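Q: Joint fold for the lines below.
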Amino acid sequence: GAGVSQSPSNKVTEKGKDVELRCDPISGHTALYWYRQSLGQGLEFLIYFQGNSAPDKSGLPSDRFSAERTGGSVSTLTIQRTQQEDSAVYLCASSLVGHLYEQYFGPGTRLTVT
Amino acid sequence: EDKVVQSPLSLVVHEGDTVTLNCSYEVTNFRSLLWYKQEKKAPTFLFMLTSSGIEKKSGRLSSILDKKELFSILNITATQTGDSAVYLCAVSSSNTGKLIFGQGTTLQVKP
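A: Joint structure:
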């Protein structure tokens, strides 16, 4: 596609429910990243994929958070047993493997846990 | 702990003014510093800096890195209302592309 797309754009869920957030990277971008942006905060790194493997998942805040990537393309971030502190905008980015730092961001998913 | 600090956190100027945004960092194994502009949701890439003293320029925007003093500045000359946005500074200290972001500077340009 023309850019990184994410779905849904907004998600409201009740505390304790599981949610899945989806990211479609730019075609041909083998590197994919998830970040989280809480209100008034900078972006916080969550996980990095190269192809289908995740060599850096150091930013996942707890074992309730997991992510996978299939076919070297679409990625899903799953949050189990959501808590109110999980409320944030979840941003996905992708890049070419030779240009890891030039990351192109999607519009994000705004997650609200009530 | 790696950290990136931006200042000021917010700034209000009038069209035509020149602004300077600051970014200081403390990271191990510095690789590059990046600037992004975030208007609504998706940050858009502005510059990547890896070498000290070499200015990067794009139109009215320019940026420079000082690796000795561990900071970077982003200059915007002749500001326009369309420059209103949050400007994010990020640093990479790993070979995985992981970026460490500052809190951002919110710039408002009034007509």
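Q: Anything notable?
A: The two ends of chain B are 41 Å apart (CA to CA). Chain B has a mean pLDDT of 93.
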